[in-house]
Amino acid sequence: MKVLVIGSGAREHALVWKLKQSSQVSDIYCAPGNGGISALAKLVTDLPENDWTAYSAFAKKQNISLTVVGPEVPLAAGITDHFRAQGLKIFGPAKAAAQLEASKSFAKSFMQKHGLPTAAYRVFKSYDEARGFLNRLPSEFAYPIVVKADGLAGGKGVSVCASPKQAEESLKSMLVQKVFGAAGETVVVEEGLAGREL
User: Fold this and answer.
1) pLDDT at 139
2) β-pair partners for 191
3) Which of 4, 41, 51, 59 has the fewest CB atoms within 10 Å, i.e. the most exposed one?
4) What are the strands, taking DSSP E only, across 46-186?
5) Does residue 27 sit in helix, strand or coil?
């Protein structure tokens, strides 16, 4: 079968590398891919970014059996919903399910609603409100605390803050200076938890 992998990072390189080992896979395409991936798959570099109609048209034209999505951004933007509506097989969560990754406030609310253990948290859209919260920190919070941009920020939107000063600086950079753009228009402030990341 023919497989299309969407993305251009190390994650997609690993996916292509493993798919290449399958006796069931005849051809692998990667859009847009990278130099390392080019040794294992045919790169597709002419598809407009986030144009799912162009991607699905390519999949139909090349008779792609399965599309595998690596990055979070296309998933959050609804690529799987579009492909499925076109009758194409694609591996990845629907847009609604991808919100668990794409919005930290959504994920925290979901965990709280369903009784899943999670750190204590508050959500803010205003720097002044968030700063006021830091000045009257509830008992369930203690430093270090964590300040997170709500949206996708390329793995850069989280600050572990050991002091009120660090927390204020993180809030200011996200909510006032807009260093993460729309991804940081809402922030989640949560208690710091020690342990292994899962």
Assistant:
1) 82
2) 145
3) 51
4) 66-69, 90-91, 121-124, 145-149, 158-161
5) strand
User: Given a cut of 80, is residue 197 above it in pLDDT?
Assistant: no
Extract the tokens encoding 188. Answer: 């989640």
pLDDT tens digits, 37-91: 999 999 999 999 889 999 999 999 999 999 999 999 999 999 999 999 999 999 9
One-letter amino acid of 132: G
Beta bridge partners of 5: 30, 68
Element (H, E) at 54: helix 52-61
- pTM to 2 decimal places: 0.82
Nearest to 95 by CA among 81, 106, 109: 81
* Residue range 139-188, pLDDT digits in tens: 888 899 999 999 988 888 999 999 999 999 999 999 999 999 999 999 99
C-alpha to C-alpha distance for 182 and 170, rounded to whole angstroms:
15
Length of the chain equals: 198
Q: Count Cα atoms within 13 angstroms, Cβ side, for 84.
A: 11
**If 0-12 CB within 10 Å is exposed, 13-18 middle and 19+ buried, where does residue 152 land?**
buried
Inter-residue long-range contacts of 22-29, CB under 8 Å, 24+ positions, other chains counted: 25/1, 26/1, 26/2, 27/2, 27/3, 28/2, 28/3, 28/4, 29/2, 29/3, 29/4, 29/5, 29/58, 29/62, 29/64
